[in-house]
Amino acid sequence: MKRTNLIKATLVAGLAGAALSAGSATAQEAPAFDFAVETVSLQTTRDVARVYARLSDEAASYCGSLIQQGYETTGALSLCQSDVVDVVVQRIGDAQLSRYHDQVQSRSARPYATALN
Q1: Which H, E and C letters describe the chain, residue by residue?
Q2: pLDDT tens for residues 3-19?
Q3: Number of structural domains in the chain
Q4: pLDDT tens digits, residue range 47-68?
Q5: What is the pTM (predicted TM-score) of this model?
Q6: Residue 40 falls within a domain, yes or no?
Q7: Domain encompassing residue 79
Q8: Is position 1 within any domain?
């Protein structure tokens, strides 16, 4: 029988607010971001991919809610989402999830790296 451990990462919105360089959201005003995952959900690559997709979706939704009308730029949303995902992956501390996150980041950076050469 596998023991199921629940990992919960709570991110105070100050980080996400800092990503929105205009400062429209502050740590005092914005809600915390909560993400919970059971360690049994991180056993296979497919499971890790599902958890990561859920984290990315929830981070995008959270960051979208922080961006006030009139300041909805793709850059701000992407930066906030990236910051939230980075911190949550680090706080969860699972090796497979961290490797998957690194792979996703290197794939998304690759098109820009080749354009700069």
Answers
A1: CCCCCEEEEEECCHHHHHHCCCCCCCCCCCCCEEEEEEHHHHCCHHHHHHHHHHHHHHHHHHHHHHCCCCCCCHHHHHHHHHHHHHHHHHHHCCHHHHHHHHHHHHHHHHHHHHHHC
A2: 445 566 666 544 444 44
A3: 1
A4: 999 999 999 999 999 888 877 5
A5: 0.71
A6: yes
A7: 6-116
A8: no
